[in-house]
Amino acid sequence: MDNPSRIQELRTLKGCATASALLELFDKDGAGAWPPKANHDTWPMTLRPYKDIYLALAPLLSTAEPSLDDNFNNERRNNYRVLMGKLLSERINIAQVEQVLAAVEAGNWDVLPRDAYNGFYACVAVCRHAYRWATIPVVKVAQVEKVVDFPQELDAPWPFLQRNFGLASESGNNTANVLHSFNEKSERVYKINVGMSDLIRSSEEAFFRMFYNLEILAFPIYYEMVRAVICFEGGDKVSCVKCLENINFRIRHLFLVFYENLTESRVSHSVWLSYVQGFHGWGVGRMVDGEFVKYDGLSGNHVLFFQALDAFLGMDRYLTDENMIRYIPVNQRELCTTFKNHSFRNKVKKHNDMRMEGEFTKIVNQLKVFRAAHRARAMPYLQQPAPERLAMTAGKSVIEGRTPKETRDAFKALDQLLATRLKETV
User: Fold this and answer.
1) Helix-helix angle 304-312:198-233, to 10 degrees
2) I want to staple 91 with a disulfide (CB 3.0 to 4.6 A). Which of 49, 260, 322, 404 is the partner?
């Protein structure tokens, strides 16, 4: 069965909360597809300079030889920001941009259809990240910044875009920066390391395509989760077991995407930290109601599939409520909440249904193996030497301490978070 057939079947299920939540995600955030459809070419003329400017400046962002000289790095970053600011001010009419986005917010999707909206969201997000860092690899003088004053051309559209997705962060997220960066031909539009070595560019491509491909394989699993809930609540145990068997089968293939791609041969340890991870970090903030609020960048725990699977299994969330609202689009949050509310795994245990319980055990065991593998593979990437920068993760910002011991302790704490999540996977 293909996705259009799955969607057609879901539309026939009236009054089913899990089906409705998945359809809402598919129709609205996904623009009639999943992973989300993103159009980067047919925008209103007033929005098109954003893409042109990002692509024009992309070759200036990365450098093959990162400097350890703070003054040099400050000058390099300032030059990039000045040039981007100049191009934005010359080519963007802020009032017209706001007019388009206000029309969409009022419900007129004809002026910017959902797939084009997704593409524009990606473009503004990566422009903001490029301006925030202004050089790749990320360097220390950028990491110690607390506040960044963005050009108005990058600030004006951001609240419209974030409100549409129910988000409250100054930074981008996995949906905008990664999923929406792929066009309808599954090509990444907004690349980071233009002009760098084959090793750097291939590692970047393999890493981000991995997350896109995960969601390609995840949609049939979301469908089977919905069907499993419906069958269980309708008393059809035989069909429910079949759904759980299908989930197990498909999860094996989904995890292969990770096992086969997060390897030295596909994503090089030597370049990932400096050239792939840093761009999608954040680590700056602003004053909100008299308090300084710092925002983080992208993290693997933003990926919808893992949140949805945890919810389906009845597990507690990893992310706090605050971080869910900051980084996870509202329709993704609603899907996971619905799966959690309709999780029936504990009921299966109480009724001692051996076949269903056996399938759930297989799902959990696969997830445990994945989390153990992720823990083992992630730390070598994070601990690679990068003298131009402070120790940092994209999702938790700078973790470097005042002494080498404090930095080692920070990495141990990060590893402990992964270990704790593994222990919670039961």
Assistant:
1) 30
2) 49
Cα→Cα distances 6→2, 192, 213, Å: 6, 35, 19
pTM: 0.95
Position 399, amino acid: I
| Cα–Cα dist 2/19, whole Å | 17
pLDDT of amino acid 390: 86
| Residue 288: strand pairing partners | 291
- Decide: residue 253, CB within 10 A, 0-12 exposed, 13-18 middle, 19+ buried: exposed
Q: Please name the residue that has the structure tokens 């999540």.
A: 421
Tokens of 63: 């450098």
Bridge partners (DSSP) of residue 397 are 393
| HEC per residue, 5-39 | HHHHHHHCCCCCHHHHHHHHHHHHHCCCCCCCCCC
**CA 252 – CA 256 distance, rounded (Å):** 6
Q: What is the mean pLDDT of each run of 10 residues along the chain (426 residues)?
A: 91 90 97 97 98 98 96 98 98 98 98 98 98 97 96 98 97 97 97 97 98 97 97 95 98 96 95 94 91 92 96 94 96 98 93 91 95 88 87 70 67 76 82
Burial grade of 117 (CB within 10 A; 0-12, 13-18, 19 or more): buried
- Which positions ≥6 away from 292 have C-beta within 8 Å? 146, 285, 286
Instruction: Find the helix or strand (DSSP H, E) in which 397 lies.
Output: strand 397-398
> 21 in helix, strand or coil?
helix
Contact status, residue 28 vs residue 105, Cβ threshold 8 Å: no
Asked if residue 172 lies in contact with residue 145, where contact means CB atoms within 8 angstroms, the answer is no
* Vertex 349: Cα angle to 343 and 355 (nearest 5): 95
Closest CA to 154 of 171, 140, 136: 171
Q: Match 């070598």 to its residue by tokens.
A: 380
Radius of gyration of the chain (CA): 22
User: Angle CA(259)–CA(331)–CA(346) in degrees, nearest 5?
Assistant: 65
